[in-house]
Specification:
single chain; alpha+beta; D-amino Acid Aminotransferase, Chain A, domain 1; 7-stranded mixed beta sheet; 5-stranded antiparallel beta sheet
Length: 276
């Protein structure tokens, strides 16, 4: 079984090669191989996913092939439920967005340029397919010189970000390659501290997470990005009753659906007075 080719995160440098921009949904990476749906199991190899039967029937009706794509059921939580438990009430809105074909009728295709694999994929799954199995269509951007602006546009349209793929690239199983460059916009924001939670395990007796509120009144937790000295200092402030009401700068993934996603602490805004 082939391992999956992995994306590299955009490093703020100009993209090289002739590329297309594919939407990144907030789903689970999935591959169709050996007549089953598989995914990566946190670096421990490939694990078999639960099989929504209608989706499997569509895959079985295709010519014999191996595919790579993303499973999506409307949001990351529902997708996880389908994959882990096969939750029946979610299956009707589950679809498999295929963006690559690895083999067809026993012939390996991974050495071909991505542009050629996309043509072959379109012959197996038409671009206008609208069932459980679909052909992931790239955006028709004419200019890719500002990847961040394009990724923010994708987020505004309900996607998690973009993957910029080199049309001349082969498929590299198990390799994290800049041929596929992923961009999920990150935003900085100042938020108000409204509470704090003590840590667990090695963080017992110090800060585990801040409870914060943004300008629109949404509350969420910030639990990463802290140095050990940050955790100690902020927890002492919490115990002294001087933490709530302070402002902190955080970074977070831009997301139109999940507030405060992947939030990370940057610094305490000591230049901003605590409101009375």
């Amino acid at each position: 079984m082939l391992d999956l080719m992995l994306c590299k995160t955009w490093d703020d440098k100009p993209l090289t090669g002739k590329r297309i921009a594919e939407p990144k949904e907030d789903g689970w990476r999935a591959t169709w191989q050996e007549g089953k749906v598989w995914g990566r199991d946190r670096g421990r190899g490939m694990a078999q996913y639960h099989h929504p039967r209608p989706l499997i029937e569509e895959l079985e009706a295709l010519p014999w092939c191996e595919l790579d794509g993303e499973m999506f059921a409307g949001c990351i939580g529902d997708t996880a439920s389908v994959i882990k438990t096969g939750k029946p009430e979610l299956i009707e809105r589950t679809h498999y967005d295929v963006f690559d074909i690895l083999s067809l009728e026993g012939e390996s295709l991974i050495g071909l340029p991505y542009s050629e694999r996309r043509v072959i994929l379109a012959s197996v799954i038409p671009p206008d397919a609208s069932g459980f199995v679909r052909n992931l269509r790239p955006f028709k951007f004419q200019d890719l010189s500002d990847p961040m602006a394009l990724a923010k546009l994708a987020v505004e349209n309900g996607f998690e970000g973009l993957v910029f793929k080199d049309l001349g690239a082969p498929y590299l199983p198990g390799i994290e390659s800049a041929y596929w460059t992923r961009l999920k916009p990150i935003e900085d924001e100042d938020v108000l501290i409204v509470g704090a939670l003590m840590g667990k395990d090695s963080l017992v007796g110090t800060l585990g997470a801040l409870l914060v509120e943004n300008a629109t009144g949404d509350r969420f937790k910030v639990g990463s990005g802290f140095k050990r000295e940050d955790r100690s200092r902020l927890w002492k402030m919490h115990q002294a009753g001087t933490l709530a009401g302070q402002t902190v700068s955080i970074s977070k993934q831009a997301d139109g659906k999940i507030v405060g996603r992947f939030s990370r602490f940057i610094r305490l805004r000591e230049d901003m007075l605590c409101p009375s």
